[in-house]
C-alpha cells in the first residue's frame, strides 16, 4: 500500500506559508541592519535589534492565534473595529507627528500605529458583516453599508493625513466584495469613480508642472462657480436620461445616465480632493510623472531609489557594499525604500527570490480561500490577500519608479513593529482557517 504524504498538510499546518514568511522576515532583518551602516562601515542604527524583537514576539503571537479557532474573532470583531476607530480618532487628535503625518500614539519612543491595526480589524468586521448578509449581498443597501464600514477607518486615516495607508482599504473592499458575490456593476462604478477622481484632481497640476501650458480648460476644474454650473448641468441630464429610460426602457438612456453619474461624482470629488491634499502629497504625484520637476526636492527620493535599483544589476554589489544607502542618499531606507537597498546589494537575481517568496504566500492564501468551507474564513483570507498584494505592488513599484511614492512599507521586510505584528496576526488567522478548512462547514 502506497502512502502519500502531503508536506503542506502535516498536522494541518501550512508550512509553505509559514516558512516563506519566516525567510522574508530574516532577509528583512539583514537589510535593516545594512540600512544602518554608514559609508565608514560603522553601525549607526539599532533598528535591526528592535526588528528581531518584533519578529520573535510577532511569531509567538502568530503561533498562538494559529491554534485558536478563528470563529472567535467573528463575535468580537465589532468591538475590535470600534476600538480601532477610537484609537484612530485619538491619533488624529493627539498623535505624534512623524514625516508630516499624525499617525502614532503612545508615550515617548513607545507607540503604536493604529492605522495598521485598523486594516485587520476592518477585514474581520467586514467579513462578519458580509457573511451575515450573504442572502442580500447584491443589494445596494448591503453594498453601501459595507462601504461605510471601510470608509470610516479610511476617512480617519486620511485626516492624519496618511494617503498611502488610506488607499489600502480600497483593494481590501473590492476583493472582499467580489469574493462575497457582490454585484460587479457596483464595483465597476466604484473603481471608475475612483480613477476619474484621481485624473480630474491631477489635471490642473499636470498642466502647470508637466506640460507647462496655459490651458483655458484648467478653469473647468478650479473655478468653483463654473464647476457648480457644470455639475448642475450633468445632474439635470442624468435626471432626464433616467426619465427616458423608465419611460422607454431604451438601454442607451441607462448608459448615458450611468456615464454622467460617474463623471459628475468624480468631478465634484476632485474639487474636494484638491482642497484636502497637502502640497507634499500633490508633489509626490507630480514627480511620479516627471521626477525632474523637482530633482533636489520631492523628486529626490524616486531618483535615488531608481538609481539604487538600477546600479544593482543582475547580481548586486554585494551585501553591505551598497553606496546609495551607506552614503545616506535614500531617505526612509529601512522602511519605504528597503527594496531599493535589497536591489542594490543582491541585484535582480536576489529580487527574484523575494518575488518567489511572495508568490508562494499568494498561492497559499488563494489555496486557503478556495479550500475554506466557511465564508467568514474565505473573506478574511481575501481581505488579507488584497492588503498584502497592494503593499507588495505599490512598494516595489514605488522603488522602481512605476508607482507614486505613498509611504507604504513592504510587509515582512520593512522596519516597523505595528505593521509587522498586524500582518503576523493576520497570517496566524490564515493558518487557523487552513487548519480548520474541513471543520467549519455551513
TrEMBL record:
<dbReference type="InterPro" id="IPR018365">
    <property type="entry name" value="Cell_cycle_FtsW-rel_CS"/>
</dbReference>
<feature type="transmembrane region" description="Helical">
    <location>
        <begin position="163"/>
        <end position="180"/>
    </location>
</feature>
<keyword id="KW-0808">Transferase</keyword>
<keyword id="KW-0812">Transmembrane</keyword>
<dbReference type="GO" id="GO:0071555">
    <property type="term" value="P:cell wall organization"/>
</dbReference>
<dbReference type="Pfam" id="PF01098">
    <property type="entry name" value="FTSW_RODA_SPOVE"/>
</dbReference>
<feature type="transmembrane region" description="Helical">
    <location>
        <begin position="52"/>
        <end position="72"/>
    </location>
</feature>
<keyword id="KW-1133">Transmembrane helix</keyword>
<dbReference type="GO" id="GO:0051301">
    <property type="term" value="P:cell division"/>
</dbReference>
<feature type="transmembrane region" description="Helical">
    <location>
        <begin position="252"/>
        <end position="273"/>
    </location>
</feature>
<feature type="transmembrane region" description="Helical">
    <location>
        <begin position="226"/>
        <end position="247"/>
    </location>
</feature>
<comment type="similarity">
    <text>Belongs to the SEDS family. MrdB/RodA subfamily.</text>
</comment>
<feature type="transmembrane region" description="Helical">
    <location>
        <begin position="79"/>
        <end position="98"/>
    </location>
</feature>
<keyword id="KW-0133">Cell shape</keyword>
<keyword id="KW-0328">Glycosyltransferase</keyword>
<feature type="transmembrane region" description="Helical">
    <location>
        <begin position="12"/>
        <end position="32"/>
    </location>
</feature>
<dbReference type="GO" id="GO:0015648">
    <property type="term" value="F:lipid-linked peptidoglycan transporter activity"/>
</dbReference>
<feature type="transmembrane region" description="Helical">
    <location>
        <begin position="337"/>
        <end position="363"/>
    </location>
</feature>
<protein>
    <recommendedName>
        <fullName>Peptidoglycan glycosyltransferase RodA</fullName>
        <ecNumber>2.4.99.28</ecNumber>
    </recommendedName>
</protein>
<feature type="transmembrane region" description="Helical">
    <location>
        <begin position="139"/>
        <end position="157"/>
    </location>
</feature>
<dbReference type="InterPro" id="IPR011923">
    <property type="entry name" value="RodA/MrdB"/>
</dbReference>
<keyword id="KW-1003">Cell membrane</keyword>
<dbReference type="GO" id="GO:0032153">
    <property type="term" value="C:cell division site"/>
</dbReference>
<keyword id="KW-0961">Cell wall biogenesis/degradation</keyword>
<comment type="function">
    <text>Peptidoglycan polymerase that is essential for cell wall elongation.</text>
</comment>
<dbReference type="GO" id="GO:0005886">
    <property type="term" value="C:plasma membrane"/>
</dbReference>
<keyword id="KW-0573">Peptidoglycan synthesis</keyword>
<dbReference type="InterPro" id="IPR001182">
    <property type="entry name" value="FtsW/RodA"/>
</dbReference>
<dbReference type="GO" id="GO:0009252">
    <property type="term" value="P:peptidoglycan biosynthetic process"/>
</dbReference>
<feature type="transmembrane region" description="Helical">
    <location>
        <begin position="412"/>
        <end position="434"/>
    </location>
</feature>
<comment type="pathway">
    <text>Cell wall biogenesis; peptidoglycan biosynthesis.</text>
</comment>
<keyword id="KW-0472">Membrane</keyword>
<dbReference type="GO" id="GO:0008360">
    <property type="term" value="P:regulation of cell shape"/>
</dbReference>
<feature type="transmembrane region" description="Helical">
    <location>
        <begin position="187"/>
        <end position="206"/>
    </location>
</feature>
<feature type="transmembrane region" description="Helical">
    <location>
        <begin position="375"/>
        <end position="400"/>
    </location>
</feature>
<dbReference type="GO" id="GO:0008955">
    <property type="term" value="F:peptidoglycan glycosyltransferase activity"/>
</dbReference>
Amino acid at each position: 500500500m502506497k502512502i502519500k504524504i502531503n508536506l503542506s498538510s502535516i498536522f494541518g499546518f501550512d508550512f509553505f506559508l509559514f516558512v516563506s514568511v519566516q525567510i522574508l522576515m530574516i532577509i528583512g532583518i539583514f537589510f535593516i541592519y545594512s540600512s544602518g551602516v554608514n559609508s565608514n562601515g560603522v553601525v549607526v542604527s539599532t533598528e535591526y535589534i528592535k526588528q528581531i524583537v518584533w519578529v520573535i514576539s510577532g511569531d509567538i503571537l502568530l503561533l498562538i492565534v494559529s491554534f485558536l479557532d478563528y470563529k472567535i474573532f467573528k463575535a468580537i470583531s465589532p468591538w475590535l473595529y470600534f476600538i480601532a476607530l477610537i484609537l484612530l480618532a485619538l491619533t488624529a487628535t493627539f498623535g505624534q507627528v512623524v514625516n508630516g503625518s499624525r499617525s502614532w500614539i503612545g508615550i515617548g519612543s513607545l507607540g503604536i500605529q493604529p492605522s495598521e491595526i485598523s486594516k485587520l480589524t476592518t477585514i474581520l468586521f467586514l467579513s462578519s458583516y458580509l457573511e451575515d448578509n450573504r442572502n442580500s449581498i447584491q443589494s445596494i443597501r448591503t453594498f453601501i453599508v459595507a462601504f461605510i464600514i471601510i470608509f470610516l477607518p479610511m476617512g480617519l486615516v486620511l485626516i492624519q493625513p496618511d494617503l498611502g495607508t488610506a488607499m489600502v482599504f480600497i483593494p481590501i473592499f473590492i476583493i472582499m466584495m467580489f469574493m462575497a458575490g457582490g454585484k460587479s456593476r457596483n464595483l465597476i462604478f466604484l473603481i471608475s469613480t475612483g480613477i476619474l477622481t484621481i485624473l480630474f484632481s491631477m489635471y490642473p497640476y499636470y498642466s502647470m508642472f508637466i506640460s507647462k501650458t496655459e490651458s483655458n480648460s484648467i478653469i473647468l476644474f478650479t473655478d468653483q462657480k463654473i464647476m457648480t454650473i457644470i455639475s448642475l448641468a450633468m445632474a439635470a441630464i442624468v435626471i432626464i436620461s433616467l426619465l427616458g429610460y423608465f419611460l422607454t426602457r431604451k438601454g442607451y438612456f441607462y448608459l448615458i445616465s450611468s456615464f454622467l453619474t460617474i463623471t459628475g461624482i468624480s468631478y465634484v470629488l476632485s474639487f474636494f480632493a484638491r482642497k484636502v491634499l497637502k502640497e507634499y502629497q500633490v508633489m509626490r504625484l507630480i514627480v511620479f510623472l516627471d521626477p525632474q520637476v523637482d530633482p533636489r526636492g520631492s523628486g529626490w527620493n524616486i531618483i535615488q531609489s531608481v538609481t539604487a535599483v538600477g546600479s544593482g544589476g543582475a547580481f548586486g554589489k554585494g551585501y553591505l557594499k551598497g553606496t546609495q544607502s551607506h552614503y545616506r542618499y535614500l531617505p526612509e531606507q529601512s522602511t519605504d525604500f528597503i527594496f531599493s537597498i535589497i536591489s542594490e546589494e543582491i541585484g535582480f537575481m536576489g529580487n527574484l527570490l523575494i518575488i518567489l517568496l511572495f508568490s508562494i504566500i499568494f498561492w497559499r492564501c488563494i489555496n486557503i480561500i478556495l479550500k475554506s468551507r466557511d465564508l467568514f474564513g474565505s473573506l478574511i483570507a481575501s481581505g488579507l490577500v488584497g492588503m498584502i498584494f497592494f503593499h507588495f505592488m505599490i512598494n516595489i513599484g514605488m522603488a522602481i519608479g512605476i508607482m507614486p511614492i505613498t509611504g507604504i512599507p513592504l510587509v515582512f521586510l520593512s522596519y516597523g513593529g505595528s505593521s509587522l505584528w498586524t500582518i503576523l496576526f493576520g497570517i496566524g488567522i490564515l493558518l487557523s482557517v487552513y487548519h480548520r478548512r474541513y471543520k467549519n462547514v455551513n
